[in-house]
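Rotation project, supervised by the postdoc (A.L.). Task for the rotation student: set up a whole-complex structure prediction and record inputs and outputs verbatim in this book. Inputs entered:
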Amino acid sequence: MTHHLITGGAGFIGANLATSLLKDGHRVLAIDDLSRGRIETIHHLTNNPNFDFRQADCADRDALDAAIGEAECITDVWHMAANSDIPAGIADPRIDLHQTFMTTFAVLEVMKAREIPNLHFASSSAIYGDFGETMIHEDIGPLLPISNYGAMKLASEAQIRAAVEAFLRRADIFRFPNVIGVPATHGVILDFVHKLKNTPEELQVLGNGTQQKAYLHVDDLVRAMRHIAEIPGRYQLFNIGPTDDGVTVRMIAETVRDVASPSASIIFGEESRGWVGDVPRFRYSVDRLINTGWEPSLSSQEAVQRAVAEIVAQEMGR
Amino acid sequence: MTHHLITGGAGFIGANLATSLLKDGHRVLAIDDLSRGRIETIHHLTNNPNFDFRQADCADRDALDAAIGEAECITDVWHMAANSDIPAGIADPRIDLHQTFMTTFAVLEVMKAREIPNLHFASSSAIYGDFGETMIHEDIGPLLPISNYGAMKLASEAQIRAAVEAFLRRADIFRFPNVIGVPATHGVILDFVHKLKNTPEELQVLGNGTQQKAYLHVDDLVRAMRHIAEIPGRYQLFNIGPTDDGVTVRMIAETVRDVASPSASIIFGEESRGWVGDVPRFRYSVDRLINTGWEPSLSSQEAVQRAVAEIVAQEMGR
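Outputs recorded:
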């Protein structure tokens, strides 16, 4: 049993990670400012004696330190706190500055002061930018993020790398694309389900539906992160994702429609990008991770199908 | 004539850039918080009717905006403001956060609000980290900065790239290694000159003297930046440096000794790195820039020889 701190611990990924760590008998302290995470997300954990939750802004060093308080023997921080609303961050760069970068900065300050040795960081495929048809592996360059979210994830990686040089014993960097599953708090599937709840006859889609992306189910993501955390090393940098090239927005829209509102018609836009900062096409190499013995249990298509069923159940109670 | 804003305009590079732009008849507004830059640096410019100086913290959006005030028709920002004391930034990461990254963040906010279209940014070879014997070109990866300074320069690049996607018309990123010349405010040559002023018989050197780096004279840097600013494009990313592999710290120490205090003995340390965050060896490709028709006028060795003469004259009046 080791004691793990999860920032963004009431968020989509944080809550799934907490459940997984607790299942294996570890202690977990989840911290979340509940600006996007929801307390219901971790309701099923609150009776577990190995689980604690505290509300705090992880970008505020003193508040974060106070929230950790007397918690003893924390060896690992899983830093999952970030802004998850990419268009919001494009409209106001201070959102990603605060929620995506300053959380990382403050987490590192607290780890240094408390001598917590190991950091596991949820980065993003958004740090790469638009490589078109080129297969994106971990060592590719130049890194040209096109959203403030991607920029602040790259800034976080950079600050973590410097901290490894100065005081951290170990850091893992997880770069992953869209992650889906429940409890869903944001994302294209939830967006489509909400639209169909409001207008059951019609699903309006931003962009022309040809954007193709890889999707990873959160169960596979948590399994991959915990797998990487066991690989010996000082600084581990891994793409995480399915091995396929992904599915189109059209496929997702159709899958949601078929489950949530089969008679709805789907209306596409004309742009190849849904919004500023959205990369239209994306080829993502996970060879490095596959070579360590991990493999995804679901393809992008299977992940979408399972997540659509889960999210429709969550939102529509069926 | 165009109107240029230089942040860090009283710093070493900013002052040389201002002189160059004014010489060609442009208007220049220099802003500097004078925490590291010195007002004497731009004393020779203050009678020029095309030159204005205002003191402000460029990391404070409102203060920066107020300092620009009614200045009209600024088309270009040369963002040179940054922490230049790398060891200080390693001791306290908030220094590089504020002076190296938040300056960039605030500059971008002000450019967006005022619709200033063109940004020219002094990045750094420190964004690359330690590639050993591998030749470092602009598209290499992964980017693993080992100092907070390098991390916050990379964070700045990332935020600028996202801003190009959202609102900037153009950005140039200049990645350069050690720049030398006068008015020197920091750096290895000035450090050695100061040591020999204090103890003329002996020069103590951090590290074993085998660290080898490329050095660029500030005159060549300013010429390269202005050359790149004329190349058509939306986002220009260039290494700037000499074409050689650099000179050793031993060579620099001997050159300073020979000019400043010929009878002094030089005492080396034992480490191959002088300090945390110092990369021992470094091979730097400037092929992309050379292919545009620019070339350095001085090698690393010639740049060191000229800068040593200039800095000894500045500090010792001879």
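Student's summary: The radius of gyration of chain B is 19 Å.
Supervisor addendum: The mean pLDDT of chain B is 93.
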